[in-house]
Amino acid sequence: MISSRQLFFTIALARISALLVLLPVVQSGDARQDAWIAVILATAASVVIVYLGTYLASRYPEKSLGHFASDLLGKPMGTIVTCLLALSFYALCLIRTRLMSLVLISHFMRRTPGWALAVPVLLTAMYGAMNGPDTVGRASEFLFTIMIMIIVGALIMSCIWGIDRVGGLRPVLSRGLRPVLAASVPATFLGLVSGLQVLALGRFTVDKRRMTRAAALALIVSGLVLLAVTIDVLTTLGPTQAQMYVTPVLALASSIFIEGTLERLDLVLMASWLLGITFDVTTLLMSSAILIGNSFRLDYRKVAFVLTLLGIVPVSHRFTDIFTMRRLHSIPVTGIWSVVIVAGTLMPVLIAHLLRQRKGGS
Amino acid sequence: MKPRRSFGRTPRPIGTLGENKSGQKENGSGNGLEADLEANLRAISSLLGNPSDLAVRRLALHGEPQPDIAVVYLASVVQSQEVSLTVIEPLLSLSHVSHEAQGEVAGPLEVLRLSLPTIHSIYEARSLKDLTAALLEGNVAILVDGEPAALYFDAVRPPTRLYQVPTSETTVIGPQIGLVESVDDNLALIRARIRHPRLRVEKHVIGRKSKTDVRLVYIEGVAPREVVDELRRRLSEIDTDLILDTGMLRDLITDRPYSPFVMERMTERPDTVAAEINLGRIAILVEGSPFAMLVPSQFFTLIESAEDYYLNPLSASVLKVLRMFAYMLSVLATPLYVAIVNFHFELVPLPLLLNIAATQEGVPFPLPFAAFITEVVLDIVREAGIRLPRQFGPVVSIFGAVILGQSAVQAGFVPPGLIIVAMMGTICSFAVPRAEKALAYRLIRFPLLLLGSILGFPGITIGAVAFVYHVASLKTLGIPYAALYAPGQTTRLSRKMVKVSARHQPITRPLAQADRVRQGEVPEPRDPKAND
Questions:
Q1: Would residue A75 count as lying in a domain?
Q2: CATH number, residue A307
Q3: What's the number of domains chain A is made of?
Q4: Interface test with B, best of A106, A141, A286 (most B CBs within 10 A)
Q5: Is the pTM of this model over 0.90?
Q6: What is the rounded distance in angstroms from the CA atom of residue B273 to the CA atom of residue B285?
Q7: Is B440 near chain A, with CB under 8 Å?
Q8: Model pLDDT for residues B220-234, shown as the tens digit of each residue
Q9: Cα separation values, A269 from A21, A211, A233, A247, A321, Å
């Protein structure tokens, strides 16, 4: 079992890791200086959607989505709905592993084959997932602490050493709300995926009443961290330059160095991001394994093992370039994917629950 | 046939009837004792293989023509002089006539027991198996002709040494007294520090052949009850021949024996035992071991020293952070060096990079291989320094560290930078107070070195995450080994790293979430006469 604090760390760490390096609010769309507003919008939207998820999870405290979706929608429909979310988690787990290895190859280790980085990450994730939510919850305490310390340190350093390059954040919605809304779509998608893991992990949370608060707080805190990073990137690099980089945060960090002491801050930031992304891959793998295991009455540990073995081929086969992979975080892809998750998984179960409640009430 | 004689005709049970020393009811299993004294003596001697140190002292009371009492013991484990003073002299002074009269009403064994007032606990054995077991444990047995039972009592304690300064946990300030090999002496040291009526001491006898005396010491109402129950269950399930030390017991009760992380804390300091018992831990004392085992232990005990109890909060906190940093360096120094030189040299400032590059010149081995060999050699030197007699230890350390290292650099076997980093890691490992843990924990630097050599920083990071998962998955007696915010835990990372002043110590504890004794939920035992 995990505590609500551990759930908070798990969701916050997963969301920060998913959004930190690629920073889709800056890259997607054309929000430019107003990209920081997109972070706020994405956080707000994620909180609303995740609230619905935690509402369901708290109504069925001893069950995960795999159980109560079958109860509400019938076995076949419940299984389809659950598998849709589980496969989304699984697909994102593999995509993130590939993206991670591509970022590392393109920035730090150009001669290292991609599979050499992707496969160890996936195997480590499998080890964590097979140890269960208790272990992942306890690991999140340490990893979150380390990651936040490094990010805060990097932010402080960027403020001190990059102060001379700070530009303004003047334009506020000068081009209307549309570019900002568009830029918030990928961040919303990544946030809701992190938050909706409560549908798998909620059953393992001790204090169900605090689950909603923990999930919402995690999204807000991670939103604040991302807001600070976004503002830092926009002010230091400027919107045009930030949009040009694949990984604007690493670009920002590489521009900061302490003469004669620390020549590359981006390497330190990369290490902390890798801690987080490995954890994120673990939670996604574990959540998908739990949901599939519940739907088909299988031990989630065995499911995690099989999913890892199946995942080794897609994460290591025919390595594409990072620009191709980045398209998976584009506005159309994440927008459609968000709609599929919300309309295909969350809404049917929620409507079925409300209908049953009304019937019970009448 | 020899006429049977006895004090009384109607033997009556004494004291704890039918109970042996460990408080278990006699079940009649094994051969029962006979009423014939000589037959019992022959059987005991035969069962023990006619040992040369089996002493049998036959006594005849005043006015009796033939001996009718036998005092039996193993002379090698019992001091004969003490037996003469405490048993034989009082028995010889007994008056046959008066006790025959007493025996009519009380029974001969009861009379004997009353005749030995200086012995505080006398037990009764009815089977040969129990009696021989008692003799082997160092008891003295008294057999009476005509009685199918025998009395026995603990007459001797194994030889032990005087209290000495703890050698594995030296401190500058604080008590300078260590545990010894006698479990009773150790218990006395703990009782001298905790004089609370709820201090519980439970005895377990473990080991088919060694019959080792094992004691659990804890404070009822502070130690979590489920942990105490689980520990009792595990001890009762142990089926082994020998327990010679707490280390052997640890292997039998630990949750993950093959993990490099030692989840039980060993200490030879009675003040540490007392302090940890007060925090809800359970101390396990083993006869013959100068180390107490504290369970359940947690990851952050790695950086806790006995000195922390006595230093002011600021100094203790700084030292804790320093130890944590030292531990991380001891594990990561060499893997990071290899990763930086092999993959991420741009991280290093240029002048330093040029120096490193210059020293790498002419070294025939690849850096990862040289690093691996250096680490192994340093571990060997360290091990040799510990195992050798004290007079030779420093010589080997100096030879190994200085002469060998310098020669290896001069010969071009290894780069000097590597020697500096590896030595720094080794010295850092000595800053970790828990020597037994630090040694095992440092083993993980080898897989990290491998990952750092192949994948650089990302490899070390992935290895570190796997290491965090492993530590997070560990549980000791049902308590998470690395818990900070787990359900039921109130620990904070800051409280682990920082010492809070004693006046601000919270009532809630890491193990006993609520110290029910301190909070007053469990009332302290009161003297019933106090209300009168």
A1: yes
A2: 1.20.1740.10
A3: 1
A4: A141
A5: no
A6: 10
A7: no
A8: 888 888 889 999 999
A9: 9, 30, 14, 12, 22
